[in-house]
Every structure is written in structure tokens, then in C-alpha cells.
Amino acid sequence: MRRPLVAGNWKMNKTVAEARELVSSMVPKLNEVKDVEKVLCPPFVSLPAISDLLKASDIGLGAQNMYWEEKGAFTGEVSPAMVKEFCQYVILGHSERRTYFGETDETVNKRLRAAQKFDLTPIVCVGETLQQYESKQTNEVVSRQIKFGLADIDSAFAPRIVVAYEPVWAIGTGKASSGPNANDVVGKVIRRALSELFGDKTAQAIRVLYGGSVTASNAAEFFGQSEIDGALVGGASLKMDEFTAITKAACKS
User: Fold this and answer.
1) pLDDT digits (tens, 9 = 90+) for 60-109
2) Which of 37, 94, 227, 242 is an active site residue?
3) What is the CATH number of the domain that holds 133?
């Protein structure tokens, strides 16, 4: 059985003070939800403060990105060692990183290999744009992102990887994919590509999340699908009641 995982990607929101206030209100509610892996991913500046607030809880902490080098003259970047000091998880290859900051399957792979080296659990994002979706290129695009983004990873580490299927056309638009459609992509495209890389047994062990306009009202539709193991939540993760409800929905599934 793959354990459900719900991660909140705060993106570029909340000052440190605001982050403390939100997490302080969330922790008691999230602690009540068992049998679900829960992860918060605030901006870098809030990681130390949030780390302290989560110490007595079973809630994990994740970074939204990292560079692949351990140290050096890379102004503005954050190294795996810096992330590891506070976090257990790291989001890699989010579509906004690919769209606005030039990330590619190759650079995602470099980051993933760094996560492997530093024993961080990576949440690797894949997904097609609206144009690719309408042109029926979803299978081709997502398969390529898996094939090249997860290349040369040790088979022993592969089950630690979490894949997040986030159709770009659904992120922040309020137009979520349907549960059956997302399940189809996960089962027929993502797990097939994972199987080609790591074999059937490992492909079935890797958790795959859905992301893209996930809310408390539609979460159960996704969590009820056989191939979907949780969610990478954006805007709703900034609202205590919404995020708690989504996490409870994952528990019920």
C-alpha cells in the first residue's frame, strides 16, 4: 500500500510572521489526521521558523526548489546542504520554475541527483501545457519529462521519489482536471514510464500525486482514484480549513 501524501506549496506567499501564524493554527488540526504524510513547503526565508514549529509534530517540511551544487559562487541560489539543515523534502521541476526560470528536464535531473545524494525526498513535478493538451501531446510530453528527469537514479532510491502530475493548464486557473482523466495519465503514462526506468515493482511503489486547482470540494474525486496517492496543493494550502479538509479527504480515501 502506498501511503497518501498531501503537500502544500505556498509559492511566493507569506512573510515569516504570517507563516508562523498560519502554521501555528494548522499544526493542531493536522496532527489529528493520521495515516497521511503531511508536508508544508513555505518560502526559503520561513524554513528555519517553521522547522521549529513542526518539531513536536508529524508534519514534514519541504523547500520549493534548490540548486544542485553544494556550495560556490552561485548568487541567489540555495544548496542541498542548506535545504537539508531544515527540510526532509524538496519540490523539483515545478511548471513555474520551468516556465519563468528556464528549468529543463536536464536541470531537474541534476537537482534530483543532488536530492539523492543528500537523502532528501524529492517531489518531482511533470505536466503538459494547455497547447500540448489540446494537441493531444500529453503522453509524449509527460513520458519525456519522466524519462529524462529521472534518468540515472539508483533503483534503491527510486521508491523514495514522489511524482506530482500537474497539468499546467490546471494550475491556479480553477480548472482542475477530472479524477478519471488524471488517473488515466498517472496509470497509463507515468507508471509506464517509471516501469521502463525502474521495473514494474518499483513503479508501483512510487507515489504519484495530483496537483492543479485542488480544493476541499474536489479532493475526494482525485483521492478516490486507484493510481493517485495524494496531492500537491497550491492556493488552498494557504487556508487552514481548506488544507486540513484536503488532508482529511486523503485519509478517508
Assistant:
1) 999 999 999 999 999 999 999 999 999 999 999 999 999 999 999 999 99
2) 94
3) 3.20.20.70
